[in-house]
Every structure is written in C-alpha cells, then in structure tokens.
Fold these 2 entries.
Entry 1:
Amino acid sequence: MTWRDAIRLAARTVRRRPGRAVLTVLAVTLAAALLTALLTISTTAETRVLEQLSSGGPLAGIKVAAAAPDPGQVDQDNASPGAPKSLDDAALTQISELPDVREVVPIVSSKVYVITPARDRDNHRIGPFVEDLVGVDLTRVSQLPITPVAGRLPSPGATSEIAVTQGYLERLGLQRVDAPQVVGTALQVASPQVVADGGQFRVRGRWVKATIVGVVAQEAGDGQFLASAEMVAQARDWARAGIDESRDLKLSTSPYTGLFVVARGIDNVSKVRAQITAIGYSTSAPENLIASVRRYLHVVEIVLSSVGIIALVVAALGISNAMLAAVRERRREIGVLKAIGARDRDVYRVFLLEAGTLGFVGGVLGTLVGWAIAEAVGRVVNGYLAAQRLVGVQLTLPWTVVVGGIVGSTLLALLAGTLPAVRAARLPAREAVGGG
Amino acid sequence: MLDGVDLDVAAGGYLALVGASGAGKSTLLSVIGGLEPAQSGSVVIGGQDLGGLSRRELATFRRETVGFVFQHFGLLEALTAAENIELACSLARVAPAARRAKVRDLLEAVGLADRARHRPVELSGGERQRVAIARALANGPSLVLADEPTGNLDDASTARVVTLLESLPADHGCTLVLVTHDLALAERASRRLRLRGGRAVEETVGASTPSGVVPSGVVPSGVVPASSPPTGRGMQERAAEPGETP
C-alpha cells in the first residue's frame, strides 16, 4: 500500500468515528493549547523582564567609551575605562562594519553650567551647578537605553528643549512620582568657554533658556540632562573655541563621547564586545546580569513547559487508549485488510497514521487555541499595566513553540499509536472469517 | 477443527462446502485461503505449499492468488465502492491510472458503475456483495473463496450474486470454492463436499446424487474427476490423520 493510500484510508477512518475522534483530538488540543499558552506567556514575560533590566533599550546594546580598554576589566559588565582615546568617525565606521553589529548610535556630551529656578525642600534657592549635557540623535532613540518617565523626549534637532533624569529630581529633593512637577519648567543652561584676559583666565558662557519637556531614565551617557545632538554640538563647539579646554573644564578632544552599539541578538553581545575591545575601546554591557536573569527565567520556562508536556503525555495516553479500543472493535476489518493482501506493515502504517492524524490535528488546533488564550491573558495584563500607567506587553509567539507544539503533538501521538498499531499488525488474518 | 480432510480441486472447478454450523466449513476455507495455517498436513495451491510460506509471502499469496467474498461483505465502511476495489489494487501496487480503469471495468461488470461513489452504508446488501465480488477479482485471482455469500441477502439479490459468482470460472478462469448452508445453491456446484465435526463425510460430483459416506473422513481419490490435475491452478488440501506425521 502506498503512503498516499494509507493516509487517505487513515483520514477516512478517523472521520468515520467522529465522536471518538473529536474527544481524542480535544484532549490533544487542550494539552497543546496549555503548552503554547504557557510558553508564549513565559517567553513574553522573559522579554519584558529583560527589557526592564536594560532600561528600555535593546537587550543587545553595548556602550563604547572614548577610552582604551582596561585589560583587567574586560569581562565585567560595567568595565572601568582605561586611558582616554579619541572616538572618531573612522572608529565608528570600523565598528559599524563588524559582521554582528546591527546599528551604531553616536553619543556626545558637554559640561554645562545650570541655573534652576526650583527650590529645595527647605524652600532654599538651588545655586548654579555644573553637569553633563548628553546629546543623541533623537530620531534613533528607540535604539538607546532611554525611557520616558514623564512628559516626552526633546524633539529631534531642538536646541531649547531638554529632558532631565531622576538625578535632577533628587537634586531638587523630589521622588520619581513627582516627575510631572518639573515638566514644563525652564532652566538657564550655559556652555562655558575659557578665554585669556591679560594673563588671567576668564570663563564666559553661552546662555540658553531650555524648557524641560520630560523626565527620563537613561543610561546612554553620564549626565542629568538629555538633549538633541545638535544642541550639545553647539555647546561643545563654543567650549572648544576657548583655550585650555581639556584641563580646567575636562573637555574631551574626542569627536564622540561614546557609542551605543546594537549587536545582532543577545547571543552576539560577547563576541561584539571582544571585537570592539580588539579595535581598542572600552565597552560595557549588562550581559552577565541578563545571563543570570535568563537562567532563572529559563527555569520558570522549564517548569511551565513540564506542565504542558505532562498534559500532552496524558493526551497521548488517551490516544493510545482510543486506538487500542479501535483495534479491538476493528478486528474483522483488519482481518479483511489482510485477506485482500495487506501486509503486517500496511496495517501498522494505517493505524500509526490514524494516531498521527489525531495528534497533528490536535497540535494545530491546540497551537491556535493556545495563542488565543495567551492573547486573552495579554489583554488582561495590558489593561492592568495601563491602569498602573506602565507600558503594555507585546505578546510574541516564538516559531519554535508553533513548530514544537505541532510536531511534538504529532510525534507523541505516533509514539502513543505504536503499541495499538503493532497489535493491529499482529492480528491473524482469520479474523476476517466467522466460525462455521 | 479439521480432521483428515483430503481434497483435490481442479483449476476452474466449482466446489461447494456444506454442513451444519461448526462443521468446519469456514475453517477449511480459511486454511485454503492462507488466512489460517494448518496445524498438520499440507495445503498446496497452484503448486505452492502454504505451510512453507512466511507471513509476508502469505500476504503476497492472498493478494495475488486468492479473492475472498464474505457473508458480512467485508467492505471498509470509510471508503466508497470504487475505493474499496481500488484498495485491493493499491495493495498490489497497481499504478493509479491502471487502477482507475480496472475499478471502472469491474464495477461495470457487476452492474454498479453508477454506484462507484457510494459508501457501503448507502448500498443494498446485494450491491455490497457485488462490490465485494468486484474487489475479490481486482488482482485477477486464480481462486475465489466465498464464505456464505448469500447468507445476508434476499432472494432477488441472492439470484444475482449467485449468477455472478457462478460465472467466474467460465469468465475469469478461476476456481470457485463456496461455503453455504443453502442446499439448493450447493446443488448447482460441480462438486459438493459435506463436512461434519471437521471431517469430510460426503462428496457428490456433478448431479446432486450423493456419492456415499466416506468412512475414514478422507475423500477417496476416485471421486476427483480424472481430468483434474493434482497441481497447477487447482488446489490440493490434505490434513493429516491423527497420529500421522505431516
């Protein structure tokens, strides 16, 4: 008997007993649905947790400093940089061309004097202070570890809008929940320039009135203020037009303060870090932290998978039971098949395919139902997160879960069908004839 | 249980096996058709000793040499009439195009060309049995074994099925062995063998006149027509006497 004929016969036979087939498929469907839903939810939860760990930035992000690597710090997540080293366009191009690098976002920063009208908790005026103004290409902010807490990000190219970090809130004696209070207030920001004045040095500032448009959590660079790259470039150009720039104001001669490099996947982070270190720059990435968390999340995933797999095994036992009952009921039919010339392996094949059909159909339906369950759970969770003013989750159905659910159900069903198929194949052909 | 049955049937012959329930008719049919092994003695069909065949070879024998017709029809309920016949061709690895042509011819031959797409449950008993006969002929068997083929049929269907079965030796050149309780039907066979308690007790040839009771349970060679060859497309069946070494 050809496979085609065996498949047709198996499919027709399954359809002939719809009640039993539906119940058996239902068991597999429920088990596969449970497995799919649990794995989808746990995978999404893992992504969500890791996103939180990376402060909203891509998990595969690597921070590159304008400094040489310290050999003793290479393997650490937050490696202390070595001696300063210029990070220019040539280095940027070299790093961009590494095979496992997806994107490189340059970061610039500049020292600024800040005057704030805000008062501290004791209602005292806060005096001027020096802080770093971090500038990035705000059109590519999704690639950076920057998450708005309140308000919004400065507009790309804006030179009078800034965002502040929680460090600034703390300076004012405020908590994170107080973030909306500072949104909309204005600051006086000055980039300093050192000039010679009759043998003396004098500092003069280029003052800009900047509006705080948002509060952010950011790890793109060290500094309590975030602005567009253009605004920071103007401040740097002003400061560099003076003298003694790298001594008193610690101005870097490097065109870029740092780079944020996005690798092609978390698994490539180590490799890319090593390549950038080989090029000669200090890097940092939360890979050890993420690896540890992933290990713990993986344990959760294993536990949840086990629940689904146990359900699948129970469903497989159901298939086995149903098939054994079918063999008992169809002894005469099996005898007839053999009487008209079917070999043992033909009968074995038909019964195995019947079991496989039940498993396959159950696997497909179960994967669909599981995804629907996960979607429903996702909606409930997103409703809760929205109520908490938190960003919702985007459910992801990994292809491995889809393939694993369908193929796993089918294989398990084939395994469950083996014993009944062997029994059917071994039945004697005389079952076709009644006594007389 | 069969005991000491010794039987030769010529190629193209028509043998009816009669006897009460439990006489061993169906068992003898099973042994002849390779569905059940003889515990002792030998079964030779067309020169082939079934005792020496493996399970796989027996399957090949049943597929290529024998066509079965059962009282219960033995059609697979999940398949249509045409598919039931096609299944037999499929087991013989007949190419799909040839298979379809064969099925069409066979259904026409049994007068059911218009019922090809009907499933057994949609057919009458007589129609099912005709489909079963068509399936039995699918691979050109030299031996057709029919076990109470009219047992579940009304008179009209019986007449049609009997006509069809009786035409097989002449039209298809195959030997027909038929088990029946119906003495009138048995009378139409060229030979009749009566079984009782697993033993052959009476054989008649040609006309319905009994040839006498066989004392030892072994059919004397004299009752086999002289023209019947011991081997070839015919069959020989001889179960050992008690105490005899097969």
Entry 2:
Amino acid sequence: MRLQLVKAAEHGSVVTWPLDQPLSEWSIDGMQKVAGLHRHVVRMVEGQISYVVKEIPDRLAEREWRLLRELAEAGLPTAEVIGVVTGRDAEADGLLITRHLDFSLPYRTLLSGRGLRIPYLGERMLDALAGLLVRLHLAGFYWGDCSLSNTLFRRDADALAAYIIDVETGERHEMLSVGQRRLDLQIATENVLGGLLDLQMGGLLADGIDPVETALAIEQSYEQLWVELTGVDEFNADETFRVDKRLRRLHELGFDAAELELVTTVDGSRLRLVPRVVEHGFHAQRLRALSGLEAGENQSRRLLNDISRYRAVLEQRGGSKVPESVAAARWLDERFERALGAIPPEMASKLEPAELYHQVLEHRWFLSERAGGDVGLDETVASYVADVLANAPAEQILTLDEM
Amino acid sequence: MSTLRMRNLQKRYDNGFEAVPGLDLEIHDGEFLVLVGPSGCGKSTVLRMVAGLEDISGGELMIDDVVVNGMGPQQRDIAMVFQSYALYPNMTVADNIAFAMKLRKTDKVETAAKVAEVAELLELTMVLDRKPGQLSGGQRQRVAMGRAIVRNPKLFLMDEPLSNLDAKLRVQTRAEISKLQRRLGVTTMYVTHDQIEAMTMGDRVAVLRRGLLMQCASPSDLYESPENLFVAQFIGSPSMNVVLGSVSVGDDDSIDLKVGTQTISLIGEAAARLHRLRSYEGRDIAVGIRSEALGGDGTASVDVAVDLVEMLGSELLVHCTVEAPSVRAVDSGVEISDHRASSIVASLDPRHTVKVGDRLRLTVDTLRMHAFDLESGAAIGRQ
C-alpha cells in the first residue's frame, strides 16, 4: 500500500485512518455520507479540518491526484487534494483524499432554496458554471463530465463561485480545440438539464428555475464570456483608448490580461488586439494586496468598492488626499473587523468573513432604504444578526441531515 | 445507413510529433470496427479526430461521402457512448433515456415512440416506469446506453469504455455491447488496448502501431494470417512463439526450417503454403507458431525442456525452453535475442501429465506455421 500525502504536518491525522480497509466499512469519528450522485463510495471525515474521501480504481486515483494538483497550480478553482492511496491489495480500489471546501453549497441544497436566499438563483448558477468552464478551457483543461454533482458552489457576494471537484474524465492539453470545447459544453448542458430535472421530479427544485431554459442558457453564457475574453478587436490606429476600454471590460468580468498582443495591419492604419493570457481574479488579487484578505472575485469587488467609499469619507473628513493603502488599512480596522467583531462568535462561523461583511452591507442598504437615510454600521450589524443570521444554517460544513 | 472513410488521415502536433502519419481505413455501414494497439499507438487520436475533438492536420474524413473535416462534433451526428452517464434517481428509466431530447425540443409523441423503440432493443420495456434504484447493475448499464442510442446517431464511438470495470463486469458488458450493436446495426468504431476485447467484439479489427495501420481484417484472419510480426505477436494470448530459424530447400521440394540444432520439415501442403520461403534459401528468418499448434496433430516435432506448467482447466499451458533465440517486433524493426535459448508456450490437452523438468517431444502442426522476414517483419510465403 502506498500513501502520498501533501503537507504531512498539517494533515497527519490521515495516517491514523484505516486506509487498508474498504471505505464503506470505516467507522471513525466524524464520518459522514456525502449526498449527491456518486459512481463510487464517497465519505466525509469531519474534524478541525474536514476531508472528503473517494474510493476509485488506482489508475483513476493517481490520475485525479495529478490533475487536481495541476489545476490548483494553475490557480483554477478546485478542491484541494491532500493525498492518494494506491496498491491497497489486488481487489481493492485506491483512495483519493481532498480537503472539504468549507462554505461550499452542494447543488441540492443551493437549488432547493433553503438557507440564505440568493436572488436570481438559476442565472447565478449558470453564470458560475459557464464561468468555470471558460476558465478551465482557457487553461487547456477539458472536463468531460461537467455536471452539478461534480461542482461545488460558494457564495460570492451576489453571485456564486463554482469549483470543480471531480476530474475523472478530465484531460489537460496545451490548448483545447474548438471541437473539444463544444463537446464539453454539450456534455455540461445535458448534465445540468438532467440534474435540474431530477431535482424537480423529486420536489426539490426552488421555484422560478426552468430546467430546460437554464441548461440551454449555459451555452449562451459561455460563448458570450469566451468572446469577451478571447475575441479579437480591430480598430483604427488612432483609437488606442480602446485598449484601455478592453482592459476595463476584462476587469469588470473579474479577469486581467497578463499578456496582450497588438498587431498593426499591413498598411498601418488599423490595430488588432488579441488577449493572449487572461487570468481570473483581478479584484481578488487587488484586495489581497491591499488588505491581506482572501475572498471570492465578486466579494473582493464589493469590498474594494467599500474601501473606495471609505477612502472618500476619510478624505472629506480630513480635507486632504488619503493614499489607497492607508485607506485600506483603516477600513480593515475601523469597518471590516469592527463589523465582524460585533457578531457573536457562534454565529460568525456560519459564513465566510467576506461573505458576512458583504451581507452586512446589503442589509445596511435595505435598512437605509426603509429608513430613508443612512443607517450606521453598529445598528446594521445588530439588526443583521437578529433578523438574518440567527435563523440561517451554518454553511461551513453542510451535513446530510442539514440537507 | 452510414459509412466512415479515412483517406490519408493525418495528425501532426505543433511540436512536430506525428501521431498519425497517414491512415487509410473504411468502416462499412453497420460494421463494428475495433481499433486496437499498444498504448501510444494513435488509436485514441484517430477516434478523437473522427469525433471532432482533435483538429485534422491532413487528409480527409468522410461520413456518408461528406467530408466532415471542418464540422464540429454535433454536426457530425455521432454519439460518444459511455461518456460517464449518470442515472438520475428521481427520474424513471424512460425519463433517464429521453430527457436530453428536451434540449432539441422534440415533441412528446416522437419522444415516447423513440423511447419505446430503444427500450425494446435494450430489453427495458418492462422497467420503463421504474427508478434506477430498482434496477439491476446490467439494467442500469443498458439505460446509460439508451441515452446514446435514442439520439439516433450515424456513428457510435467508444473509447476504452470497459477499462474501469472489473474483469467479470467487463466480460458481461462486452457481450451486451456486441449484442446490442448487432441489433441496432449502427456503424461503430471501438477503441481498446485489449486484444481479447478486440477479437471477441469486432467484425473487423484494425491493428495500429505508432499511428500506422499494421493490418485490418476479421479476427480470424488476423489470428490465422497475420501480415507481419507485430500483428502476429500482438494478437493472441498467449502470444505467438517466434524464434530464429534458417531456410534450406530439399531436393524433393520440401522446405526445411532449422531451429537451433533441430529441423522442422515442411512437406506437401505445408510447403506449398509457405512456398515463397524458397527464395529465402540459406537465409535466416523468424519462425512463428501458436501455442495450440504445438503438442497436437502434426508431422514434425521439436524437443523441449519444461520450465513451468499452468493448469487452466480447459487447457494446460506448458512453458518450455527451445535451443534457439527468440525474435520479436520492436519499434526500430525486428530484434533477435542475444540468448541462444528462448521460452515458448504450448497449449496442451489438460489430460496430459507434464511436470517441470520433463523433456518433451512436441508435435508441430506445420500447416499452421508462420514465417517472417527479419528486416521488414513482413509475413513470408502465403501470397
């Protein structure tokens, strides 16, 4: 038997598990079944760090181990792979161990409409899935089985962020052909339709989501985003402002162009702009640089906007310009951590910090609208805790019972 | 009615690697053609070009006489079968088979008719109203197949669909696929590295090596009449025994094959069958014989020493040493072993009593011998 483990000091508990036994027979503290459609035995081990263990043939386990690590190295949204066990014995399959993605929402929970509501849930979900597929394809990764079961979602301000968690059918290439992208999209469309119809037939689909329309809309959402990120712009040579416009558009979508190619036409009168390397996480990187905070792309955009607004307040109060880095430091101390610190600890762990703060801001807007004037942060937090958070389920780890 | 034609089909990658230098192959209407070969031989690349997943670097790919090089997967109207289809637990079998037709806005009447037709073919009619949880493993597999079939494609493509199954389920599913394809009559391309799978399933089998077609023929032709050393040794389990021999021609038109210090004489029909060996007089060749052609009927014999006996129930596999170097096909051509002796395998009637250390005189069925050129690896003597 062979165990390959990353960060052994952090994940040392893994070696104490009965790795040589069939997964379905394990009986260790924190064991849970994992809901959803699975072709293999899958279990969760809950603890200070929670893990998901999947039993699959050695060859597939090794392959997924390698692919998940490649995805993570490429900065793509995926479950963190911790270890792989192979060579258990002639009859037994291998084990793939990943870290549970905290605050992730399995699709069955998300689409049932339970828990904290997400407006325009169907559109958010399909945008998240389409966005994930585009990012994977840009990185040369063919999924082969994009489905709701193989994806986890996390709140990202008013949007959802999607994470790929099952790469059994995945392949990594230098670049994907048009045929590969189209087939991957076709598979995604069919699988999403199947998943949504299945929920609907089980009475588990939130109102307002049409399975066929949602599935069909994935292709459109994908194509629109793909063109935005990779399409070639051509303009007059004296219209270089369009370069900036294109960059701004990429930033709006949460991307940045690490490399742009500008080519003059033969007669020199026109320019062709081709984004060569497009990376996701423009706002997340900016937020991290300014504040050290880790957050989803939309959450980061929201928090950056709040930093900008607070900077304007500080400048108005002080009567002079405030550097962005100084404003960010004061925002962190005087707004972000102050707001989160006012939430009772047992409730603060229900959501990710950035998501909590975003929801506090949303609640403040709602209260201010109702009051016809600005409501203070302290009053907002108190109201949010009492009226919203108190009744919300903890989303760090959703167990089968809670689903 | 669908045919697939590949004319000098090529795949070249940007780094210059030629995965498929040029392939000419045709799949007839309703045929089940298997592409087989060792890992890296290009079989999956070929399938992916047919599927539209890989761009074609050169040559033509035609489906029903229409060149489809520039068409995407959907326009080619092909179905990749066993694409990890999940069965949805809240949907009935009928819904599981047909739900994807909603994407094409197919009307309910047409959908129901199609589902009924597919269910009958798959022997699922009696369980159409059941949920997957109420089905056997075999029935669930067939429901997954149903999803591909209901689309009514021109062509089925299957890329190593059984590779993740255990041995028992593989054998069972293999039979199901073969049976189903015969009933459906849909033109099918099936890729596998497993030569047993290839031989049991294909109407014809195309053996690939480094992107080149080594032979395309019926399983029996491949087995009995391999055109080259690679095919001879790739097809068949145990692999064909191939050792170094030299040719001499007798006054009575017999052909003698000298194998080590022993001589195997080909006379009458056996000599006529390999008559082209006469042009190899005095030269070395590779002499091949399958395990079942040893120890049974035969006019010639060879003395061997028994190293290992494997009792399989239906046959006795006897591993022996013969005083002649082994020969095998390698990437660069043909390789002759440095060792003077080599191991061969004979498949005997299980009622034989043989033990390790015995010296045996194995009969050789000279009508089933093969000979190969040592430079090209091509089969000699049958044309």
